[in-house]
Design brief:
Layout: E1 17-21, E2 28-32, E3 37-39, E4 46-48, H1 63-67, H2 74-89, H3 93-113, H4 117-126, H5 131-138, H6 142-159, H7 165-177, H8 187-204, H9 210-220, H10 224-234
Antiparallel strand pairs: 1-2, 3-4
Length: about 240
Amino acid sequence: MVRCPGQDQRFWKPQDIFEVDCANCGKPVEFFKDEPQLKCRQCGHAVINPKIDLGCAEWCQYAEQCLGVRFSSLTIVRQKLIDEMKEVFSQDEKRIEHALAVLDYAERIQAVEGGDPLVVRAAAILHDIGIQKAQQKHGSSAGKYQEIEGPPIAADILKQHDIPHETVEHVCRIIADHHSAKDIDTTEFRILWDADRLVNIPADFPEANKEKLAEIIDKTFKTRKGQRIAAELFLKN
């Protein structure tokens, strides 16, 4: 098979070889741009390449042989779930914007921390999907009830798109615990937890000074990448 020009090192630029800090121990891991994942030599943690472009894998018949991993079109499923979320929230632009902001942070964190990218994206898009039903049934107490109302709605949406049963269950468990953190502590859950808090901190702690924010970040966030983003957002300015 003729080598893809995008992976032929004769066409590479200096920035196509770079270092990514290990999310577990902080040591740098050197990547070539076409390497999807490497193990940290220091601690053995799986480090995801945050810069890899898998766009051609959506249509190329040699994607699995070329990349060494099985690729499914996250882009298509991601957009379908966003459309479903917007339909549920209808004209509630605040909820839609919140979900998309959480999704953006979740994708940034997942690129470094690893985990199942489909679970992370689905949980981020649908994490508040039960809030309107909870408000209708419970009024001002909706916050604590959306963990109950959300999973069945999310499951119905996910099942429409032939998503594996175990993935549906994982996403629903995250939604059922995304405020309380009672019964789950997977990588994907920790990513969603941090992404949601990155969006919510300004509203939840509007008067907090930098010292207080530093304490919140240290005690609340569950991933190294989430902590780093929070520090850049709330402590540097």
